Amino acid sequence: MHVNQWLEAVPPLVVYLLVAGFILIESLGIPFPGEIVLISAALLASQHTIALSPVWVAVAAAGGAIPGNSIGYLIGRRWGRPLFDWLGRKFPKHFGPAHVSYAEKQFDRWGVLAVFVGRFIVLLRVFAGLLAGALEMPYPRFLVANVAGGICWAGGLTAAIYYLGEVADQWFSRFSYIALILAVVVGVVIGLVVKRRTAQAAERHHAEQQRETAEQAN
C-alpha cells in the first residue's frame, strides 16, 4: 500500500488520542516522546493526507498537558522528596541528582513562572508538575501557570510546525512524504540537541554544588 493510502486509512480521532495520551504521560513526569508525537501530528495536518485539523491537534496536546501536569503535581505533593530519591535510583539518566538539582535551581529562580516556562524546556517539562507539588507551591498559582503554559505551548508549537509543513509541501509537492520524513528527522535532531545541552547544564550545576560543598567542608 502506498504511504499516502496507508495514512488516509488512519482515523483522525486515533491521532488526537495518541497526541493527548503521549503528552499526558510525559507531563506526569515520565520521560516519553510527547513533543515528537505532537510535531508529527502537526506535520501530518499540514500535508492534508488525512483530515487532521491543526486546531484539534493543539486542543488534544493541551488536553494531555494540563491534566498530566496537575496529576504530576498531586503525585509530587503526596510523595515529595522520597519520590525523587527513588526515581534517581531507578532512572539515573533522567532523574539523577544533577537533573533534580538543576530543575530546583530554575524553580528557585523563576518561582511559579518555572511552571509556565518549563512547558517549553525539555527537562523542566518532565519535572514541572512533580517539583511544584514537592515544593508545595500553592495549587491555584500552579494551575494558572499550568493552563497558560499548556495552551501557549500546544497552540504555538502546533501552529509553527503546521505552517512550516505547508511551506515544505510547496517545495516538495510531488514528494510530500519525503518532506514529512525530513521535517520529523529535523525535529527529532533539534530535540535531542536541546535535551543534551540541558543535561550538560544540569551536570555543570551539580558539579558546582559539589565544589561549593567541598570548599565549605574545608
Describe the structure.
The structure is a single chain. By secondary structure, the protein is mostly helical. The chain has one domain. Helix 6 packs across helix 10. It contains ten helices and no strands.
Summarize the structure.
The protein is an all-alpha fold and 218 residues long. It has one domain (3-212). It has 10 helices and no strands.
User: How many strand units?
Assistant: 0
Number of domains: 1
Radius of gyration: 19 Å
* Percentage of residues assigned to helices: over 70%
Residue stretches low in confidence (pLDDT < 50, at least 5 long) are none
SS-derived structural category = mainly alpha
Distance between the termini: 70 Å
- Arithmetic mean pLDDT: 76
Largest sheet: none
SS strand fraction: under 5%
Task: Count every helix, treating DSSP H or I runs of 4 or more residues as helices.
Answer: 10
Shape designation: elongated
- Helix-strand pattern, N to C? HHHHHHHHHH
Overview features:
elongated; mainly alpha; 218 residues; single chain; 0% strand; 85% helix
What's the SSE blueprint?
Elements: H1 3-8, H2 12-27, H3 34-47, H4 54-90, H5 92-95, H6 97-110, H7 113-118, H8 122-134, H9 139-171, H10 176-217
